[in-house]
Amino acid sequence: MNSRIGIVAASYYLPPKRKVVADVFRDEEIPAEPLAANVDFQKDIGIEAVHMAADETAAGLALKACRRVLEQAAMDPKEIDLILDFTSIPEEYIAPTWSAAGLIQKEIGATRAFATAVNTGGCASYHTTLKVACSLMAANERYQTALLFAGDKAPEFNHTYYPITVICDGGSAVILKKNFERRQILSVEVSTAGKLHDIWYIPGFHNRDPRDTKHKWLHMTADVPKFNKEVIPINLFMFRKVMKDALGRIGRKQADVSYYIYPTFSTWDQKAFCEAFMLPREKVFTDGLQRHGHLQETDMVLDYVDAMQEGHIKDGDLVMLTTNGAGFSWGAALIQH
Fold first, then answer.
1. Per residue in 238-255, pLDDT tens?
2. Is there a cis peptide before residue 15, judged by omega within 30 degrees of 0?
3. Which domains occur in the chain, in start order?
């Protein structure tokens, strides 16, 4: 990253309706397959309640986040050159034919922007999109500013992502600017493992089980035995790889990182991450787990915003944002404050 691309503003929107996790488990089916880890999924998840979008659409959640970030940045939408949608699960129309990027462009009046989507990384889509945005901005003088956004609404009866987490609905938005001196994006690394592509997915029309009459056409499917056998053994190795590569690209070491933004999957997952990399809990933002559960790719934005507002991140800090996503992909980004 050599164009001094920085984060001008970041914001999010959570719908007001909440549902306690105990009621989510009551209303949704929990697979019978045991976890490879020695944990009780329902008892030890660490999430109290999640936000539910109700009648709000996924794109509507994203639009509210975008309007908030534009107000925060005091920016005219006509100044935006690039709009990238990093939503994991679009709701209104089928992807990749459709993306909310065009809808957002129309609604906010970003008439000069080029709008498209980069959303195949699951919960790591934010990192993939950061990498694409920074590459486009560095390579083309036309792209001076970029709006990155996501809006996720879990399909009905799909808030339980066993064996990983419980999902919260919400939207997020980030504005990037070239030659911006603060919150500079120094490095972004993403790694993928194609052999794991079919562990977590929404079946296409031709791939649906005709015996399933309960679920609507959007329904998350997980191959838990394959998850246990193939994802868990390499997960921390892949985290180590992307974080090491991100640091190595700028000549820094783990000891230089002041603070970590890590996804709100579960208490046991956060514990495993901290223990694996010998990190004290005070260096990793974990408070979001109990507050709202997991927001897929929006975790990285929401927890980053909250960590800044609550004083965990200070001027001069080197911040690591790292996550993994269904696909499976892993991402790490370094932000210099």
1. 999 999 999 999 999 999
2. no
3. 6-181 (3.40.47.10), 187-336 (3.40.47.10)
